[in-house]
Amino acid sequence: MNRYINVRAVAIAVMMMMTAALHVVAQSPAAGDTCRRNGVSSELSIAATPSLVLRSNPFLRGHNQLGKPVSASFSGRLQYAMRFAPDSEYGRLYPYAWQGIGLGVTSFSASGVLGSPVALYVLQGSRIASVTQRLAVDYEWNFGASFGWKHSSSTDAADRLLYGVGSSVNAYIGLAFMLSYEATPRLTLRFGPEIAHYSNGNTSLPNPGVNRVGLRLSATYRLHGIRPRSLSTDWSGFRPGMSYDITLWGAWRKWGYSPSVNEPYTGSGALEVPGRWLVGGLSFNPLYRFNPVVAAGAAVDLLYDDGANLSAHFEPSSPFESPRFYRQPLSERIMGGVSLRVEISMPIFSVNIGIGHSVYSPTPRRHDTVYYPSDDDRLSAVKSDLRGFYQMFNLKTRLYHGLYLNTGYRLVDFSKATPGAEQKQMLIREMSLYSFLRKILL
Questions:
Q1: Looking at CB atoms within 10 Å, which of 99, 191, 269, 364 has the fewest?
Q2: Where are the alpha helices (DSSP H) in 78-225?
Q3: What is the DSSP string of 340-359?
């Protein structure tokens, strides 16, 4: 998948997210009044997750340095979360939401292939439906960075492929749906399916990606601030309307290329281009907010990728190990597209997902020195790397009114296995720079 991510920045982003969360708690007048009376309720959780590893690539099926398949894993974690008081602003809008930070460790079968990475992440969950007064269905997502993966630092491509994971730090995304039982006013037991994904977004190669599916078993103990079993949502003060998001983002990525001048780069068996390439973009996203949770709209997206369409400009006389390329025209490094977006908002965090398609993505033109045996070969070799469907998953963390930290994924063509990177973004929800500065300064 064509992923645009800066994974090493995820750990810093996680800490910034938690700092922002504490800032929101401190600055919210309604929440602040409640804190002085009852305090923001907090809770501590322990969880265990036995999982199956999806062996989706040869490395996980046994083509690795030990010659053993990776088929299972076991994760343990410790989490701290807080809930806003029922009579605070956030408590009225999102009475069942919790958010916090977690620390977990995962061990894999065939010990020594992947290592035992440690994850640091932010989390948020809430209730989906109540079954009885004590029984409910909840969800929780996790997003962060995992450290300590086994990887090869060798410059030999064949040796690195045997290690499968190209970096010691990988992004971590998890989602669980759980049946929750309130055993006592302080103790809640949960269990349910969990999926998790680890990837460095191809900021380093190789990057096969590791996915696991398991069963989470957890116990949550409320440290203080016992809450009523039944809470009601109060959206009486909310007015539906439009909001406008402007996102400016930047990252870097690795690229691959096809050494054959008569075949397009498909990501399969391609060679690695030395160095890292700048990626950046701009998105304008009007959203209609139906209620405090759900918003939807469309966006205009612009993308610049400094390494796009390199295969079309490969110099055949250069060695594969030290390839040289003619400089692509600026038009071949730019993509313009339109996407549909849906946003789910909760306290502090919002999840914005979307799918779009390129509108402007010129066909790359091979350099004049490249020989084409036939017109058919030429036509098959010139599809743009930036053309087609693209998908987005963004986590927005409120910093101030109108200012967000936005960290997320950008994929191209769903299953198209081409190298990529991860985004670390700052998002300004203001159409006017004057309005933005006024909010910050005043």
A1: 269
A2: 89-93, 157-163
A3: EEEEEE-SSEEEEEEEEEEE
